[in-house]
Amino acid sequence: MLGLLAFAVQAEDGHDLWMRYVPIDAANAAASRSHATELVAADATPVQSAARAELARGLGGLLGVAPAMSDTVTRDGAVVVGTRASSRVIARLRLDTRQLGAEGYLIRSVRVDGHAATVIAANEDIGALYGAFHFLRLLQTGQSLENLDLREAPRVKLRVLNHWDNLDGHVERGYAGASIWDWHKLPDWRDPRYTDYARANASLGINGTVLNNVNSNALSLTPMYLEKTAALADVFRPYGIRVYLSARFSAPIEIGGLETADPLDPAVRRWWKDKADEIYRTIPDFGGFLVKANSEGQPGPQDYGRTHADGANMLADALAPHGGTVMWRAFVYSHEEPDDRAKQAYTEFVPHDGRFRGNVLVQVKNGAIDFQPREPFHPLFGAMPKTPLMMEFQITKEYLGFATHLVYLGPLYEEALKADTRVRGPGSTVAKVIDGSLHGDTLPKSRTTGMAGVANIGADRNWSGSHFDQANWYVFGRMAWNPESSARAIADEWVRMTFSNDAAFVGPVVEMMMGSREAAVDYMTPLGLHHLMGRGHHYGPGPWVEGGPRADWTSVYYHRASRDGIGFDRSATGSNAVAQYAPAVADEFGDVERVPEEFLLWFHHVPWDHRTASGRPLWDELVHRYTRGVDYVKKMRGTWQGLESRVDAERHAQVASFLGIQEKEAQWWRDASIAYFQTFSGRPLPEGEAPPAHSLEYYESLQFPYAPGDGK
Amino acid sequence: MLGLLAFAVQAEDGHDLWMRYVPIDAANAAASRSHATELVAADATPVQSAARAELARGLGGLLGVAPAMSDTVTRDGAVVVGTRASSRVIARLRLDTRQLGAEGYLIRSVRVDGHAATVIAANEDIGALYGAFHFLRLLQTGQSLENLDLREAPRVKLRVLNHWDNLDGHVERGYAGASIWDWHKLPDWRDPRYTDYARANASLGINGTVLNNVNSNALSLTPMYLEKTAALADVFRPYGIRVYLSARFSAPIEIGGLETADPLDPAVRRWWKDKADEIYRTIPDFGGFLVKANSEGQPGPQDYGRTHADGANMLADALAPHGGTVMWRAFVYSHEEPDDRAKQAYTEFVPHDGRFRGNVLVQVKNGAIDFQPREPFHPLFGAMPKTPLMMEFQITKEYLGFATHLVYLGPLYEEALKADTRVRGPGSTVAKVIDGSLHGDTLPKSRTTGMAGVANIGADRNWSGSHFDQANWYVFGRMAWNPESSARAIADEWVRMTFSNDAAFVGPVVEMMMGSREAAVDYMTPLGLHHLMGRGHHYGPGPWVEGGPRADWTSVYYHRASRDGIGFDRSATGSNAVAQYAPAVADEFGDVERVPEEFLLWFHHVPWDHRTASGRPLWDELVHRYTRGVDYVKKMRGTWQGLESRVDAERHAQVASFLGIQEKEAQWWRDASIAYFQTFSGRPLPEGEAPPAHSLEYYESLQFPYAPGDGK
């Protein structure tokens, strides 16, 4: 029997994400079982069924015994799940759910008919499902089920993944294999992984997904593809997830047979209205459109002399009767515009503040360039008090080592959300812009709020290309629910659910994760440097990249290294991008003595002998940081090696292999960058620093025509 | 405990292929366990370790208890595995292994030191590994381990998969997801699935794999990619699998900096010689090159006025010092050549018979067009008595319904291999051409033999895109080992290993599979019709396809339908392609009264009222067969539905869904084809035949720009 069991054990290949539901420690199991003896949960609706099935599966796995199903509380340890409408038990408890909204829940230890019970209550079914996942999470993270009294409600309304997935299965900036959407076999074949995808998202509170690339194809809006999209919507609906589509602005021409896509043209407006009507006939709870317009070659309203507001409002008007939302991206910069690229979105959008319809969200990347390892917060945050701004984070690591580098993005998200815009004095954080609380008085009353994450999900067995990249999907979801969450607390939670509650494992791994993003900044783009990666594919270092179709797609545009120094002068003596921030922030960023050192070269052009906070001259400090980044990766490898006995062999081996790749590539980044910048600094390496392993010519000669994720 | 077990059970997602090793019936288990009490197997070499590990894993899974490891036979029921060199027990048994060659094995019930034992003996380690898989197969298929006396040796030397995988991960004509080769993370990350791939192939006796597309990219031959290929070779080596690469003929220009790729140019010859030396320094057991030259736009020796023999021999000379082989494809037809495409390979290659080096195999597709649902055997078979010809089958179902149609290719392979070329009288089968026995007296002494299959493998969880497509990988491997195998026996074996030994399941499923290919012929291309699929992607019907870059890429070129009839006249009154066959065959194929009806329209242009064997006029017979094909799919759906209780829910659901798609698409093929051909026949549908569901314009209007596998 033992032999058989050994062979039946589930492989730890990462496919189950943070929902592994493996047996909890024997020490805790008995106590926990006494709090999950029976399950009182309706299944009259698909969402109710999802909650009940998840609890049965989760409790069965975690506690080794599935709870009995019951219509009412018959013994101590019952778990009662539902809403006033779905559960007579809950209706009788007269719980105060007024602050929970449609998606919130409470979990409370109560007595029902003389029995100890735990109630998971909400105003709507979806809240109860979220509560069920929270209840399971308590068990998964080794917490007690005694004396519970928890209340949760999301701070942001639209918590959305953006899939940059093409119809041919290629994922732009995807490092986890092909798209999980098997368009060819849809709508007939509904792969079970679609359900697992929905479960994983619901477990985090993600409630929307944009299925197709922002660089979009109008065919996604044709009947054949809408039928396929509808099949996915059917699968996701029980998990509270609405589907959205990226809409190609020129679709009226490409699939509508019109000669223009001018947003003020009545025929165009009619086409979009009819298209919206058609979509909602197929998908009654369709979420809306995401649009990338007049950006990097995409069509848009400016092709017709119209504004972004004109374009967004036309789509908003088409969607409004159905309750749909337009997510209009602010990631725009012009080919023709000679001004600092970092300034252009602000320049373009601020004048339109207040001119967008109530069902438009302007979607703004965390920084003004493009998902770099570190950027200061985008100056649009706080600058459009009459317009709801939606955060766009990148979960896929386009600029942070693809799938093989262990880089936990929690600290990056936290840094961006906690950044203080100062527009209404200290404490005017980006988080408060996003959740609408900072400008509650000036925003439209009908406003919504949102946070988007560019997904790192693909057909790879472990979904995200690496085990640790699952944490980035996880932390995005948790921070979208509550933008003031702690990256460290979420890492702790994720490690426990994904790997183990063993304190000797959790502690070192959380430490490793928490420093990993700073390490990537160090070995790629220290001290405020940015946009130094290889051309096109963005794999590896390319500080020498110059020429080509546009200056602001090169590295030399951003680092501006020369004999006299390095860095982009965005102070008043330069592009004056600092002026786009609130005065208190502008003063700080604009002053080379006061600017936080991590943004030094973002805002200033500084001589090589500039004295840094450490006392080292700039060149020495730069080299020091490159080396520090590599050393951190070496330290992570050592830490991970020492944890071999505390984790399954399969996942340990892959993580160890990837850390080996990361170390090689971190060294490559350091060496190539130093070799290149030294041609400008003309200075020797500081004492004790190893010279680059190869010549600069060697690094410049490397070609990677098939690096994954390239945006062909 | 029961609860826990229930949750730990392995999902039946098809990933384990025919190597599931789940417990055998309790009824047989006791008897079988008594024949596998201990395992006496060396592990001094990687191949020995692979055999030992496979037996431990397989026996542990199948019997519920892993056998004890022992250095010698200590009890009844020992299993002794190895060679004279690796096993003293086997050396002492003095078995006659003379006929087994390097890869064969015997399995025999013997007594050793007074104990009953089973010996798996071979001349080389790899034979013992193959024997180990055979031994496991006995258990998997419900056979007894009593009184065994088996001998097996492969009839064909090179049993090779051809992966049409591009470096960017796209698989040309692949319907199972992206390529399994993660080139970007190689050589560092050796995905465990590479080992599973090798195990699966070794279990069938497949001993070679061409990693990259025949439409090849010269970069595969650069040091960066050779290092990656070497890592895969390392993983495959313990399983007796050698790696090959498709070589782009113009590589000396593209990556060598030469101005020509002329095979008679000394600098070009030197470049290939140096390249071969470089490859063998990296991969000492490299298998050789596969080449598609002067075919469908690929470069080749004719670009320089040289012959295919000149090109092949240059590469052969480069590989010869290292023992490598050139597999040179005969799939050629010229853009400029107005002659019947079916004739061109023969015309091109026969004059060169005897001019190829001893380490060249000419690789010939089973038919003269291109892997159609049915083709007569290729006239090259038997026509080159001095040249070893290698069979090329397609495993991936480019023309047979992609991944969703249940079409078992065993009968197609068997039909091709059993076809009688008559070149040396009756019994001159294609199988005997392939295994070298037909022309043993005229072939070069140093000859090798081979069979290639274009792989249907991708990153999909079940490897092949559908559960039943695994059977096509399986039957290819088994037929490559023995080209005279029975497709039915192999189907029976595969069903037992993959699903169940339950007779009430095996019988109906084998029946279903055995008729499935004929059904596809019926609903796609009955009565010898061919090449009628959609343009480019080859998805769905396209009998109306005409125009475009070349006539022989259209459908009208092949069906030649008009008011007066339908079919391609390849008799003496037409292209006279029949004359390329031996006279006895040519007489039969060339005579409209004697030609087998399944090839009627392949060889003859026939009036619509031509009387067929059934007594029906041709038009009625055509419609009858289209409908019969659809009806067979309906019957398969019914059969499968009735088997729901006899198979796991997960695989049952996917097969059921795919059969639903197949029925829809079979109906589509029938309806579109009938709607189209009726415009020529001008005849009514026979009594009782339903009219097409849509108009011909509707079918012609359908567009599938993102159908998978397109050869971009």
TrEMBL record, chains A, B:
Positions of the Alpha glucuronidase N-terminal domain: 17-135
Glycosyl hydrolase family 67 catalytic domain boundaries: 139-463
Domain Glycosyl hydrolase family 67 C-terminal: 465-688
Superkingdom of the organism of origin: Bacteria
Known EC number: 3.2.1.131
Keywords: Carbohydrate metabolism, Glycosidase, Hydrolase, Polysaccharide degradation, Xylan degradation
Keyword Hydrolase set for record: yes
A Pfam family hit: Glyco_hydro_67N
InterPro entries in UniProt: A-glucoronidase_C_sf, GH, Glyco_hydro_67_aGlcAse, Glyco_hydro_67_aGlcAse_N, Glyco_hydro_67_C, Glyco_hydro_67_cat, Hex-like_dom2
Molecular function GO labels: hydrolase activity
Catalysis: reaction(s): Hydrolysis of (1->2)-alpha-D-(4-O-methyl)glucuronosyl links in the main chain of hardwood xylans
Entry's family note: Belongs to the glycosyl hydrolase 67 family.
Assembly with partners or alone: Homodimer.
Identification of the protein by name: Xylan alpha-1,2-glucuronidase
